[in-house]
Specification:
The chain is of the alpha+beta class. It contains three helices and two strands; from the N terminus they run αβααβ.
Length: 79
């Protein structure tokens, strides 16, 4: 069987074999006083991301929301 090479962007991101990963978009990252960068710059991203996700859902694109979860004793961070 001959494999088809995906050379056009439209083929590479076709809904049937594409997923969008949204990684670590959590409250603590955007909270006032967060030490993880400029809060205002990060918050400016939220409406754009919401619009992007809405458009992806309208096109039935697979979305995966990934988040880091820690236990109360932070055992998840120990190796």
């Amino acid at each position: 069987m001959r494999r088809r090479i995906l050379s056009r962007l439209e083929d590479k991101v076709a809904v049937g074999h594409t997923a969008i990963l949204i990684i670590d978009m959590q409250n603590s990252f955007f909270a006032e006083g967060s030490t993880l960068g400029d809060t205002n710059e990060k918050r400016a991203l939220i409406p754009r991301l919401q619009q992007f996700i809405a458009r992806a859902r309208a096109r039935h694109t697979n979305l995966a929301f990934i988040r880091m979860v820690q236990t109360t004793d932070d055992a998840s961070l120990r190796m």
